[in-house]
Design a protein that fits this description.
This protein has 178 residues and is an alpha+beta fold. It has one domain: 2-Layer Sandwich (Heat Shock Protein 90). The protein has three helices and eight strands, in the order ββββααββαββ. A hairpin with a 6-residue loop joins β7 and β8.
Length: 178
């Protein structure tokens, strides 16, 4: 949750997306990933109930598993078509940023209701996300993709530990796109 004096940032929206009341927080356990054990984000630190979350080590091999598991959770939540494609792309970009720029274990949380999909990526770096170059430049265009596909996106510092949460919201109801 945003706190007074927080240095969080919101992009492309008037305010942070509303907290979800549907869904449940998945059990928090340590899960083995190869030779690395990663402690999941404590359930009390998740900023809202989520449909699914998973924690991974900062390795390229984690990216494909995290993307696959998040996509499965979105599909089980009934997300389809263009919205699913956009959400999977946003998940992929935020995961890549966590691996490349934070270099810490990261947690991906997804939630979907009748009106929107929310993606949160928690990592251990305090550095805020920022655009590395103009749209279309390589490397550095991941956040441009997130901004283009999301209704709103932003970040906030983690309340109970080091790092931040980068989030994106994608509306499920789209005029002229359904």
């Amino acid at each position: 949750m945003l706190q007074p004096g927080d240095t969080s940032q919101l992009h492309r929206g008037a305010g942070a997306p509303p907290a979800r009341t549907a869904g449940t927080t998945a059990p928090t356990v340590e899960r083995p990933r190869g030779r690395v054990r990663v402690a999941a984000v404590p359930a009390g630190e998740l900023t809202r109930p989520v449909s699914w979350h998973g924690t991974y080590p900062p390795a390229d091999s984690s990216a494909s598993l995290a993307r696959l598991e998040a996509a499965g959770a979105l599909t089980r939540a009934g997300v389809r078509g263009e919205v699913l494609d956009d959400a999977k792309t946003v998940v992929a970009e935020l995961i890549a940023n966590a691996i490349v720029h934070a270099g810490t274990p990261f947690t991906v949380a997804v939630d979907a209701d009748a009106t929107s999909v929310r993606v949160d990526v928690y990592d251990g770096s305090p550095s805020p996300p920022h655009f590395l170059g103009p749209p279309g430049t390589w490397p550095g265009f991941g956040l441009h993709i997130v901004a283009a596909l999301s209704t709103a996106w932003g970040w906030q510092r983690r309340a109970n530990g080091p790092g931040k949460i980068v989030w994106a919201q994608i509306e499920r109801v789209r005029t002229g796109h359904d």
